[in-house]
TrEMBL record:
Top-level taxon: Bacteria
BP GO annotations: lipid biosynthetic process
MF terms in GO: oxidoreductase activity, acting on paired donors, with oxidation of a pair of donors resulting in the reduction of molecular oxygen to two molecules of water
One Gene Ontology cellular component: membrane
Listed CDD domains: Delta6-FADS-like
Transmembrane intervals: none
Protein name: Fatty acid desaturase
Domain spans labelled Fatty acid desaturase: 70-334
């Protein structure tokens, strides 16, 4: 099963967790107090860059006559769409720039370049996902309702198709997000049928306007070269969908991004909420360019700790969060983008199979773990002073015991055998 007792799994006392929460609150306070004109200039500069890139890309697509020109223009348009979706819209809709009091860059007024309705996404993502991150039965982003990513989700014959579902979801990710948003909105508004109908009408209207803009208006502006522009829009949207999918999945489903039962929510303190975000998220390593193109969601741990702090500060925050992981002996789950995606892909393909074909237990699998993987003695947090000995040390000790156990069970032949 998933984690039911965060303190036991993390090998931390209640006092340790509260102290961790206090230090994370201090990070938030420091960042909030230091926000100013440089941060505001950053988001305005990013918006100008994205819009300029979009216009230049469309001019190259429409004016060039070579195949190379079309490829360059389409790649630039895809890049512009990725920046708009990840570094701008996602973060603006989180309220990261609401402190500027700029009505044009505010979570309540911003509309993104996708078929989903922004307000519906804010509920399904900012509330259902971020507040209840990786809690079974509460976080609807856990597999997005179509992919089994933990053994706590009961296997059904339809899961045999999830490798194909995964490919389909990646290619139409914006449509998946739109349908996911209306599903959450419907659950929130029920049983008020009138409001549910209004939400559905809003989605239909957004789909219509987005489709006309991308696949009718821009191609029509190209006149006789409309096919060239239409193809570019289709490919750019596909590339944006694939990139967004990879970034999101690498932050939530590789090994080390833990899952939790609803038991953890009972009397959950702010400090315990922080700890759940740290244990339920994963980063990937990125330089400045990759970080920018991913909306700084390479810092998914930091984003889940402080979803409404500006993304341009995540690299700065990450230094302090990683230091806290060292201090409290907690794992800081990260790896290369390729590595994190391959782990995610392995989980998706593996959990397509019935549990009887899986080797590890439901308490000790790479993608599904709980406090029951440790012995009663190992989960004790009692100590007499000294440094904190927490989850990271416990995981390493258990890995060593497992390795030694395998060595005893399957000894290697010595040179004289």
């Amino acid at each position: 099963m998933a984690i039911t007792n965060i303190a036991a799994y993390a090998h931390l006392s209640d006092a340790d967790i509260e102290a961790l929460g206090f230090e994370l609150d201090a990070i938030r306070s420091d960042i909030e107090e230091s926000l100013g004109k440089n941060d505001a200039a950053y988001i305005r500069r990013t918006i100008r860059f994205q819009r300029t890139l979009d216009v230049v890309a469309r001019l190259v697509i429409g004016c060039s006559r070579s195949r190379a020109g079309w490829v360059l223009g389409t790649a630039s348009l895809a890049a512009a769409k990725c920046v708009e979706n990840m570094e701008i819209s996602h973060n603006v809709l989180h309220g990261q720039w609401d402190w500027m009091n700029d009505p044009e860059i505010h979570s309540s007024t911003w509309d993104w370049d996708m078929v989903g309705v922004s307000s519906q996404w804010r509920y399904s993502h900012n509330y259902r996902h971020h507040v209840f991150n990786n809690v079974l039965g509460m976080d609807e982003d856990l597999g997005f309702g179509v992919i089994r990513v933990t053994r706590d989700q009961r296997w059904q014959p339809q899961h045999l198709l999830q490798p194909l579902r995964n490919l389909l979801l990646a290619s139409i990710f914006e449509w998946g997000i739109a349908l996911h948003g209306i599903h959450s909105e419907r659950d929130r508004l029920m049983p008020d049928a009138g409001k549910v109908a209004e939400a559905r009408a809003a989605l239909v209207g957004k789909i219509a306007s987005q489709t006309v803009k991308d696949y009718v208006l821009f191609p029509a502006m190209s006149r006789s070269r409309w096919r060239r522009t239409l193809a570019a829009d289709v490919v750019a949207n596909l590339m944006r969908n694939l990139w967004t999918y990879v970034v999101i999945f690498c932050g939530h489903f590789p090994d080390g991004a833990e899952k939790f039962t609803e038991d953890v929510l009972e009397h959950e303190t702010r400090a315990e909420w922080y700890l759940r975000q740290m244990l339920g998220s994963a980063n990937f390593k990125a330089g400045p360019l990759l970080a920018f193109s991913s909306g700084n969601l390479c810092y998914q741990i930091e984003h889940h700790l402080f979803p409404d702090l500006p993304s341009n500060r995540y690299a700065q925050i990450a230094v302090r969060v990683r230091a806290l992981c060292d201090k409290y002996d907690l794992p800081y789950t990260t790896g290369s983008l390729v590595h994190q995606y391959l782990l995610t892909l392995r989980t998706i393909n593996k959990l397509a199979l019935p549990d009887r074909f899986l080797v590890a237990t439901s308490d000790d699998a790479p993608e599904t773990a709980s406090e029951r993987k440790f012995s009663a003695a190992a989960t004790s947090v009692a100590r007499l002073g000294g440094p904190i000995v927490g989850l990271r040390t416990a995981l390493r000790a258990r890995a060593r015991r497992t390795h030694l156990g395998r060595a005893v069970t399957h000894p290697r032949n010595g040179p004289g055998d």
